[in-house]
Structure formats: structure tokens, C-alpha cells
Design goal:
Shape: elongated
Distance between the termini: 22 Å
Number of helices: 0
Disulfide bonds: 315-342
CATH topology of the largest domain: Jelly Rolls
Largest sheet: 7 strands, antiparallel
Domain Laminin G: 1-162, 167-342
Strand content: over 45%
InterPro entries: ConA-like_dom_sf, Laminin_G, Neurexin-related_CASP
CATH architecture of the largest domain: Sandwich
Pfam family, one: Laminin_G_2
Strand order of the largest sheet: 6-5-4-3-10-1-13
Structural class: mainly beta
Number of domains: 2
Keywords: Disulfide bond
Order of helices and strands: EEEEEEEEEEEEEEEEEEEEEEEEEEEEE
Helix content: under 10%
Length: 347
């Protein structure tokens, strides 16, 4: 889920006493649920911060208070949370561990709706509330032992099903792509590092192309081999790995290091021999100023250096561009990217 990804539900909830329980699985921080009133004068939020479950609340009798669990739970495993409000105290229990408690007013001024997993873009919560949604999976969400039904919720925005088993990374369907930058400049040099897992022989990792087809640059999997290609105004040159065409589509993790420096491109995968390509002269890769796509590209924007138009199908992780780790949640835009985790089952 991001903050436009949430579930808005209107359960029958007493503001004097209630019991909210749920299970979650994630590698990331984010909001579990948010309760407030129309003026946000009082509120209660449970979220993950620094890998720990934290409950924040504000009431006009006791002021701002928080309850912090100590266990790190951003490990991709299933965990449980219980938030129990009574007439004098509120309690937080994580994984049936130690009960943590704080004083709270008898009648907290919060009303429906309850925002689960995030909140709408138009809502501007207090600074203590995280600015992005739950990035993972929620299950068995209950209020006073009554399940919260997604299908019966008032609004469901941006949510998607969970995979049964996961590991860190992002999952792409073959029709997915993200825009890393609207005006990315590739000058004399660029380095790319990433890890991938797929059962396909073709797919785009990264690509950029100015209108007209050049200058352009593409890092891709083509016929089972990794290619780093550059097209300048004069020619196109490519570095291509030498390997069996089925070696890299075995649904196991592989590591790529690629670069373009002036008129030379290079790529190395795992322990394979380095591959190089050059323009054969002094011609350098001209500077680009176009959209940089990750994982694929829209058919309406052809890429002058690409050998394939197939989007990547599989998992990516540890994607680094010029020493900058790609934050998939901070892309300019994306289509059909599963950012929370990668499925472990066969792709």
C-alpha cells in the first residue's frame, strides 16, 4: 500500500472501549490504521517506525502519548498486533508478548471512518503520523472480534492481493514499468548494479532514449544474455555476456554490474567474464535528457538502443544507479509494480 493506498471502513466502534487485532507481514515501515474526528482534535494511530510497532494517540486530557514495542518486526514474517482500549488505559500487544499500556481518557473523541493501511491524499494528519501507507500485507483485521471486510468497505484504494511466500525485492509482471526520472542526464559515465530473478529470456532492466532514437542506452536481457547497448548519433555499440541462453532464466538470483564510460560499455554477470563494447573511435555517448524507465517502457515511446520490447518479468532487488539506491516508492510514476516484496513461488 502508499498514502493513496488504503481501506476506508465505517465499523460500529465505541470510542470508550474497543479491541482491534490484525496480522501483518512486511519489510517496510508504514501505517496500520488511523482513527480521528472531522477536525482531527484527537486521534489514534498504530504504525511501524524503525521496524517497531508504535501506537500514538492524542486526547485533550492527557495530551500526546506513545507506546513503543521493542521487537524489530520488518522481517517478512507474519506478526500479530492487538490494540485494546478500556475506560482508563490503552494497551498494545505484539505477537502475544508483553502488554504495554498508557493512561487514556474514558471517551476518546474519534469517529468513523477508520482508515486501514493508509489514508486519502486530501487528509493531512498530525506530524507524528507517517506520510506513507502500509507496504506489505494485512490479514485477519478485526474490531471487537468482528472481521473488517474489504468488500464491504466504503472505499478501497490502491490495494492488491498478497503472495503466499515472499522475499525482499520488487515483482514485475512483464507489463510493469517505472519512471525513475523525467529528465535523466547520462553524460560521459554511468554505473548500474542490480540483482534479478526470472524464468524469461527477454526483458528490460533499464532504458532511456531521446526522441528520434538517439542518443539512447539500454540494459536488458535478450535471448538469455545480458546486453548493455548505447546508440549515439553515429553508431550503436553493445557489450553482451557470453553464456548459455538458459543459464540466467533459471529463476535464481543473478547479479549485474554495468557501466558506460565515454565510448566504452561494459557488463558482467555473476562470475562470468567481463563483456565490453565500444564505438571503435573517439565518438562518445551524447548526453541524454529524457525519461529513464525501469523494468520496461510504454509502447508509445520506442527505445533506440533496445533489442527487445519485452518488459521484465520476475524480481529485482538492490538496484543502484550511480551509487543511488532505487526507492521504488519514490518513482515519478509506475505501472503494475508490486513494490512490497517478491513472490518466492515459481514466477
Amino acid at each position: 500500500m502508499c498514502c493513496s493506498e488504503y481501506i476506508c471502513t465505517k465499523p460500529k466502534c465505541s470510542n470508550i472501549s474497543f479491541d482491534i487485532t490484525f496480522g501483518f507481514r512486511t519489510y517496510h515501515n508504514g501505517i496500520f490504521f488511523y482513527l480521528t474526528n472531522s477536525d482531527q482534535t484527537e486521534y489514534l494511530v498504530t504504525q511501524l517506525m524503525n521496524g517497531q510497532v508504535v501506537l500514538f494517540f492524542y486526547d485533550q486530557e492527557n495530551g500526546f502519548k506513545s507506546i513503543n514495542s521493542t521487537a524489530i518486526v520488518t522481517d517478512g514474517l507474519w506478526h500479530t498486533v492487538s490494540v485494546r482500549k478500556g475506560t482508563k488505559r490503552i494497551r498494545l500487544i505484539v505477537d502475544e508478548g508483553v502488554e504495554l499500556r498508557e493512561n487514556i481518557k474514558r471517551k476518546l473523541n474519534v469517529i468513523s471512518p477508520m482508515y486501514v493501511g493508509g489514508y486519502p491524499d486530501g487528509l493531512r494528519p498530525h506530524p507524528e503520523v507517517m506520510d506513507h501507507s502500509m507496504r506489505g500485507c494485512l490479514r485477519d483485521f478485526q474490531l471487537n472480534s468482528n472481521p473488517i471486510s474489504i468488500t464491504e468497505s466504503e472505499v478501497v484504494s490502491g490495494t492488491s492481493p498478497c503472495f503466499q511466500k515472499v522475499e525482499p525485492g520488487v515483482f514485475l509482471t512483464g507489463f510493469s514499468y517505472g519512471i525513475y526520472s523525467q529528465n535523466f542526464k547520462v553524460g560521459d559515465g554511468l554505473t548500474i548494479n542490480l540483482e534479478f530473478r526470472t524464468n524469461k529470456q527477454n526483458g528490460i532492466f533499464l532504458t532511456i532514449s531521446d526522441p528520434g532514437g538517439f542518443p539512447a542506452m539500454t540494459l536488458e536481457l535478450h535471448n538469455g544474455k545480458v546486453k548493455m547497448s548505447v546508440r549515439s548519433s553515429e553508431d550503436k555499440f553493445t557489450a553482451e555476456t557470453v553464456n548459455d541462453p538458459y543459464l540466467l532464466c533459471d529463476n535464481k538470483w543473478h547479479k549485474i554490474q554495468a557501466s558506460v564510460i565515454k565510448n566504452v560499455v561494459s557488463v558482467v554477470v555473476d562470475d562470468l567474464e567481463n563483456a565490453y563494447g565500444s564505438s571503435g573511435g573517439s565518438q562518445r555517448f551524447s548526453e541524454t535528457n529524457s525519461q529513464l524507465f525501469l523494468g520496461g517502457f510504454p509502447s508509445a515511446i520506442p527505445q533506440g538502443a533496445a533489442f527487445t520490447d519485452a518488459g521484465f518479468s520476475g524480481c529485482l532487488r538492490n538496484f543502484v544507479i550511480d551509487n543511488n539506491q532505487v526507492d521504488w516508492y519514490q518513482l515519478v510514476s509506475s505501472v503494475d509494480l508490486h513494490k512490497a516484496a517478491c513472490p518466492v513461488e515459481n514466477l
